[in-house]
Amino acid sequence: MKRNLVFAICALMIGILAGLSVFFYEYFYPKLYVKNNVGEYVNITTASNNETFPINKSTIFQIEYYYPDEGRTLTEETSDFPQLLGCDKDGVQRYLDSYMKRLPLEEQEKGLKAFELVSYHDNVICLRKTYQKQILTGYFAKSYNGTVVILKGDEKTVFEYTQIPINLLPEELQEHVVAGYYLEDEKALYNFLENYSS
Question: I want to staple 91 with a disulfide (CB 3.0 to 4.6 A). Which of 15, 87, 124, 149 is the partner?
Fold first, then answer.
């Protein structure tokens, strides 16, 4: 009986000492711990290492260029993104949405389909640009060995080799054909062939 009483008193003393040590630690170091939404105390010095927002001058940006058609991703790292300086997560999302609504011509030509926030931790923000080249359903008139060749919308598949010499086309049209003259449908294609075939 005495032995059980001694164990109970020891256990009680250990519990009281543990509680007091936590209380005194929080009392003497109050700025190190804050209560989170769940009610647990979290060490803010550890948490601050994972904080990214607001974006500051030391934030690193990893920009992924994703090409799903080719199955490849290129990654670029930069610390210079002044448009996002001082932004929180919502500010970054607003910037990305605005960028997609007012897409620069260069990005349109490359086929940018999405610009999204992938991750944000340890003062590193990962953004991803997804590019998909638009495959046109029409035709392209291009120059091949001094004559016009008609390609399908993918610009790879030959639809027809013509006998139309490039130098017989109007000068402005010659430039367009050398760069790739787009014909949106079969009607436009047959009009082109009728007008310039001898």
Answer: 87
